[in-house]
Structures are given as C-alpha cells and as structure tokens.
Write a structure and sequence with these properties.
Length: about 200
Amino acid sequence: MEPAGLILFSSALFIAAASPGPGIAAIVARVLGRGPKEAVPFSIGIALGDVVWLTFAVLGLAALAQTFHEVFLAIKYAGAAYLLYLAYKLWTAPAAAREVQAEERPEHPAKLLLGGLALTLGNPKTMVFYLALLPTFLDLTRITTLGYAELALATLAVLAVVFGGYIVLATRARRLFTSPNAIRILNRFTGTVMAGAAAAVAAR
C-alpha cells in the first residue's frame, strides 16, 4: 500500500478504536474488576474480530454479511450474553482488601479470547467502520495480498496501542481501591458498565 493510505487508515482506526464503545467498556471493566492479566487475551480476541471485519471489507463480503444476517445476529446476542455473565460475576465477587488482587480462579485464556472475538463480531460500531466507512477512504478493489497483510498488521498494532493504554490506565485506577467497601463499590460499578455494554450491543 501507499504510505499515505496506510497512515490514513491507521489514523482513522485509532480515532475509532479510542472512542468509548462496548469493546473499551468491557476491557476497562474487566481490568477494574479482575485485574489486567485476563484483559490481555480478551483484548486479543477483540483485535482478531477487527481483522475478521477488515477481511470481509477487503474481499467485498459486505453483501455476504447481510445475507447471513441471522448468523451475525446470533453472534451479537452471544457477545451480549457473555458481557452480562461478566457483569454478574463482578456483582457477586467477594470484596476483600488483599491489595486488590484478581480472583484466584482465573478464566481460561481461550474462553476470554473467544468472548472478545464474539463481542467484536457483534459490535455495530466495528461493522460500520469496516463495511461502511473504510471504502470511503480506501479503494478496496485495488488492495493486493501484501496490502491486506499491511492493513492487518496496522490494525493489530493500532489496537495494541489503544487497548494497552486503557489497560494501563485502568490498572492504575484499580490500585487506588484498598478497602473491602471500596472494592465492592468498584465491582458493582464495573459490573454495571459491563451490563451497559451488553445492552448497547444487543439494542443496535
């Protein structure tokens, strides 16, 4: 790809990814409620979902996505249900002032990755960016295999910066809570945020 086109794509993606949405809300809530460790595979799943939508856009599969509308609708509701499950876990988590450690029984990384992937595949914000906005500033019909690889790597790099920044900030905020009462409030606040993200995904 031309450097100018790659820079334009990366800039637009950075702005879109950094703006608050269900994905960012889920990442921040997970860090605040359970610590940063589990947020990494969850974020990787979200990023892979972006690559899937990028692939759809480059291959001209927007029409296919519409044809299989019911499949993506099911994925969307699966992602929303997973967020509600996370919200429930946060609301019912025990409050203990153990230097705000994450729960002792972490979720399996593969489960977290699939949860992040499902969230992105059902996120209307991501769909709109790749299937509607991306063709307006890139000629997708002229992208070669190498150009696609460059776009995919740029996508992963930009999302790594954005998600990493949110994880670091959320981790620092989490350390401010040291009392059981503060932890209980934090868990319920982040659980509410997670439920709100689920509602946003399901309602659109």
